[in-house]
């Protein structure tokens, strides 16, 4: 039976379970459940702290796990990314009191608070900077105003928490993170692991694309197909009206409205966009 670790709390827990449900796996109904058996797919899910998941995957006690790239790097565990999952996007940044420009070199000799001590220590070493790293479990942004640290390194999503605490990010991002599917470095390639990866890849891909259907006069078909080339090539079907054709193509979700505007301007009619739930390419 495949053993898979899923975040039980925090920013990744909800989207990870939703994605697994979309991929056809059974997920917990009760927030406090720590395991769920999915006999139909021969999988057992373990609901663990996102920070602990790379440790379990790296030790080989679970076959696959979902966690953040930043957490995987910080763990130092021997794990590899099988698939980027497209949610839980954040950057990991240095930040210090607003009101002036900061550089990473200025952290030398300073106190730096973080929940990700290994990620930070590695980055400071790369910069040749020697700072005192103070490990905190959370709410790191408050540490400067409370006097525990001079600067911080933490997860930045919208940037709202930094602004609220009068901090400003500086330096290059230490990590561009998102949720990832992890396996142990050098572990055997089981068919069951491949199957879960393929199913999740199908959902990730489906979330990034939409299906577009439209009718267009054959006189503009070449121009319309240039706007919607699809992945391989668009499907073109005849309509009862011989001078018209129906076209179907996948388009990137982020561009769908622009593409619909362009098709409408060209003379396409009945331009319909619909969600794709999953796919195998
Ligand atoms: N505001 C956010 N926006 C986007 N991703 C985030 C945000 N906060 C955390 N993450 C990501 O979620 C992952 C785990 O962080 P999270 O804060 O959910 O776990 P935790 O700190 O262990 O749990 P908790 O905060 O509940 O104690 C990390 O990969 C992080 O990059
Ligand atoms: O840039 P923002 O959108 O404001 O989000 C960033 C904040 O979100 C996370 O905190 P979380 O809620 O996980 O609390 P924690 O600090 O206790 O981990 C992270 O640690 C930052 O504090
Ligand atoms: Mg957190």
From TrEMBL:
**Regions that span the bilayer:** none
The UniProt record lists the EC number as 2.4.2.17
One GO cellular-component annotation of the UniProt record comes to:
cytoplasm
Q: Does the entry feature the keyword Transmembrane, yes or no?
A: no
Name the domain of life. Answer: Bacteria
Give GO terms: molecular function aspect only.
Answer: ATP binding; ATP phosphoribosyltransferase activity; magnesium ion binding
Note the InterPro entries from the entry: ATP-PRT_HisG_long, ATP_PRibTrfase_cat, ATP_PRibTrfase_CS, ATP_PRibTrfase_HisG, HisG_C, N-reg_PII-like_a/b, N-reg_PII/ATP_PRibTrfase_C
- Report the record's Gene Ontology biological process terms: L-histidine biosynthetic process
List the subcellular locations. Answer: Cytoplasm
- What pathway does the annotation place this protein in? Amino-acid biosynthesis; L-histidine biosynthesis; L-histidine from 5-phospho-alpha-D-ribose 1-diphosphate: step 1/9
Its top-level enzyme class, in one word, is: transferase
Keyword Metal-binding part of the UniProt annotation? yes
Which residue numbers delimit the ATP phosphoribosyltransferase catalytic domain?
Answer: 49-201
Kindly list the cofactors needed: Mg(2+)
Catalysed reaction, written as an equation:
1-(5-phospho-beta-D-ribosyl)-ATP + diphosphate = 5-phospho-alpha-D-ribose 1-diphosphate + ATP
Give the record's free-text account of how this protein's activity is regulated. Answer: Feedback inhibited by histidine.
Q: Recite the UniProt keywords alphabetically.
A: Amino-acid biosynthesis, ATP-binding, Cytoplasm, Glycosyltransferase, Histidine biosynthesis, Magnesium, Metal-binding, Nucleotide-binding, Transferase
Histidine biosynthesis HisG C-terminal domain boundaries: 206-277
Alphabetized NCBIfam families for the sequence:
hisG, HisG_C-term
Q: Which family does it belong to?
A: Belongs to the ATP phosphoribosyltransferase family. Long subfamily.
PANTHER family from the UniProt entry? ATP PHOSPHORIBOSYLTRANSFERASE, ATP PHOSPHORIBOSYLTRANSFERASE ATP-PRTASE
User: Which function does this protein serve?
Assistant: Catalyzes the condensation of ATP and 5-phosphoribose 1-diphosphate to form N'-(5'-phosphoribosyl)-ATP (PR-ATP). Has a crucial role in the pathway because the rate of histidine biosynthesis seems to be controlled primarily by regulation of HisG enzymatic activity.
Q: What is this protein called?
A: ATP phosphoribosyltransferase
> Which species is the source of this protein?
Herbihabitans rhizosphaerae
The upper taxonomy is: Bacteria, Bacillati, Actinomycetota, Actinomycetes, Pseudonocardiales
């Amino acid at each position: 039976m495949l053993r898979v670790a899923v975040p039980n709390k925090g920013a990744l827990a909800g989207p990870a379970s939703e994605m697994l449900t979309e991929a056809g796996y059974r997920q917990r109904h009760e927030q406090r459940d720590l395991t769920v058996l999915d006999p139909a797919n021969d999988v057992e899910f373990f609901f663990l702290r996102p920070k602990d998941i790379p440790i379990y995957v790296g030790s080989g006690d679970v076959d696959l796990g979902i966690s953040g790239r930043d957490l995987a790097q910080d763990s130092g565990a021997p794990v590899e990314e099988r698939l980027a999952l497209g949610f839980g996007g954040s950057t990991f940044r240095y930040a210090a009191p607003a009101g002036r420009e900061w550089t990473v070199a200025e952290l030398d000799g300073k106190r730096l608070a973080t929940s990700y001590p290994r990620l930070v220590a590695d980055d400071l070493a790369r910069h040749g900077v020697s700072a005192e790293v103070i490990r905190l479990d959370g709410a790191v942004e408050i540490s400067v105003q409370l006097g525990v640290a001079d600067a911080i390194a933490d997860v930045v999503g919208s940037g709202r928490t930094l602004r609220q605490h009068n901090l400003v990010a500086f330096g290059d991002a230490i990590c561009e993170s998102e949720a990832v599917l992890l396996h142990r470095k050098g572990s055997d390639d089981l068919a069951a692991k491949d199957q879960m990866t393929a199913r999740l890849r199908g959902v990730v891909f489906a979330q990034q694309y939409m299906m577009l259907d439209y009718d267009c006069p054959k006189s503009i078909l070449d121009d319309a197909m240039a706007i919607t080339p699809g992945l391989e090539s668009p499907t073109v079907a005849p309509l009862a009206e011989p001078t018209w054709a129906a076209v179907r193509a996948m388009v990137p979700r982020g561009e769908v409205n622009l593409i619909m505007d362009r098709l409408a301007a060209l003379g396409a009619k009945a331009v319909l966009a619909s969600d794709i739930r999953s796919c195998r390419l």
